[in-house]
Task: structure prediction
Amino acid sequence: MLVNRGLDVWRLEQFSPSLVKFPYRQSARSVWRSITHPGEAIDRTGLWPFVKNEVLPLRWRKWRSAWMPNYTLHFFQGGVTYVRTEGWFADHAWPVPKLWAGATVFAAAYITEMAETGYGNAGSAAFADLIIFDLGGILVFSIPGVRNWVGKGRIMDWSLQPVFTPNGEVYNVSDYMTFKFGLPFVDKVDFLWRLGLGSWLGLSFAHGETDAFSIAVGGETINKIVDANTLEESVTFGVGAGIFYDRNGSLLASLEWGPERWVALNVYPGVLPGAFGNMGLLFSLDREFRPRVGLVARAFGMGLGFSHRGPDKYDAQQARLNR
Result:
């Protein structure tokens, strides 16, 4: 979870996937400054622009939609992840599972803010994301009635398979949560909602007693835009679509198209024959038709691969700061 959820934003086209060149100390300090001195960051953005862009769903224009992932990704998905993580710690007899779950989910959220910040300034958005929505989601989903609702739902983890390359980069990271809801008067067809760095809707068709094929389409985040003067954040969206095959809710294969990739095929462990049965497979082409391939081990949920190396965006960021 720390990789897929923490580094999810590195899928966006302006981010570099380099683990080697990432400015860990600078980004961690910037995020910490934002959440411990929120007044400074909010004053720079302006209180009302901060509220209507980050907190309340009052801006619907293309360039002013930062609140949307705050509600869906940080609050709702983060809250559901907290409940499921608490269950994992409880099942494995960890002491105080609520504390460990909250710390794990918040740590993943903090890594997300670091990944977004890089050499930049976290600004007021980090405070909104971490304190209002991530922490708020943990607290709200700690309420017994809300937690019980999560336990009754058909909620599945359809995250991608992270692949690390020999040059210290990571690809194919994304934290996806999928919900299925039965349709009235229709047998073997469910309504599907996939939530992550974007939101997709579709239909899932049962095949036999255990398997299902699904199709979905929806909005995908393309870019995060930061105003150089106010540090106000906004995001732009594109359209993505995919075909999915699962067994008892566990994703076995997916084929996706989206604004940051022409095509991405993920085959999960348990599908390939023979000696490769415990291995997963990745093949994708980015928008410039550069290939990415990888093999993933079931035991780790991650693997090794190769990617055609493009321009290093951290070098460009550092060069701009040194001017």
